[in-house]
Amino acid sequence: MTLTWPSTAARAARRVPPPDTVALQGTVGTVAPRFTVPRRVRRLAGPLLLLVVWQLGSLLGLLDRDLIPPPSEVLRAGWDLLASGQLQRHVGRSLVRVAEGTALGVVLGVAVALLAGFSRIGEDLLDSTMQVLKAVPNFALTPLLIIFMGIGEGPKVLLITLGVGVAIYVNTYGGIRNVDRQLVEMAQVLGAGRSRLVRDVILPGAMPGFLVGLRLGLSSAWLSLIFAETINTTEGIGFLMSRAQTLLQFDVSLLVIVIYAVAGLLSYAFVKLLERRLLSWRLGFEGV
């Protein structure tokens, strides 16, 4: 039998434990558990800290409780509205409007972006019109929508649709036109037809832009809802805010602001979920 001795580098590697083991090794040779705060908890640290500062400011007398009620009073007002059934009715009506306007805005925004992005004729006919709509604030269109469509649900949903559609169009169109031309030429050299080129190269390349547009579009949807629910309505959180301001119910006004904030956080979380699912192929910088 022939014995072969390990090399000097191999013997040194056996004697020296991995860096993590050296850093975490205890007195008895066991690896100590490493405690890390989950990222979801860390993401909520900022809003929770804001609530704590708000409550402490009220308790210490730094904030006028009559004008800025503490979170405990805002929570009590929300519980009263929940018990009476008003909160569910107003929030539910607003959610329906946002869902309808967002769905229409996404469909129209993507359709126009595809027409303008894939065709120079489409770009010439559509892009300037969309840039005009981008430059005009939503609330400036409210009187015109009332004149042409009346005071029903139509102008409310259309106002949200315009806000979402413009954001989707601008970012999706930019994503299509920013696809690397070398990738397109390479796919054509390899024999990819037009449909496969669109499906496998252009649409995946434009997906990050679409998701950015969706994130901005959802924010625009909630902002548009504020103006939309000032159009002769008796339901919705915008109406709840207007009535609370008229009756000087500052706790209800702050409750509506908290509802808008929670809706924004949930919208952001929804888009982040889509990004993890749809952009799993992309290896981008995630911070250090």
From TrEMBL:
Family as reported in the entry's similarity comment: Belongs to the binding-protein-dependent transport system permease family.
Start and end residues of each ABC transmembrane type-1 domain: 91-271
Membrane topology: Multi-pass membrane protein
Keyword flag tRNA-binding: no
Compartments it resides in: Cell membrane
Residue intervals passing through the bilayer: 44-63, 101-120, 132-151, 157-176, 201-227, 247-271
Annotated protein name in UniProt: ABC transporter permease
Principal cellular location given in the protein's record: membrane
InterPro entries (UniProt xref): MetI-like, MetI-like_sf
Classification via Pfam families: BPD_transp_1
Source taxon at top rank: Bacteria
SUPFAM superfamilies: MetI-like
Gene3D superfamilies named among the record's database cross-references: MetI-like
Keywords, alphabetical: Cell membrane, Membrane, Transmembrane, Transmembrane helix, Transport
Top-level taxonomy: Bacteria, Bacillati, Actinomycetota, Actinomycetes, Propionibacteriales
Naturally occurring in which organism (per UniProt): Microlunatus spumicola
Keyword Transport: yes
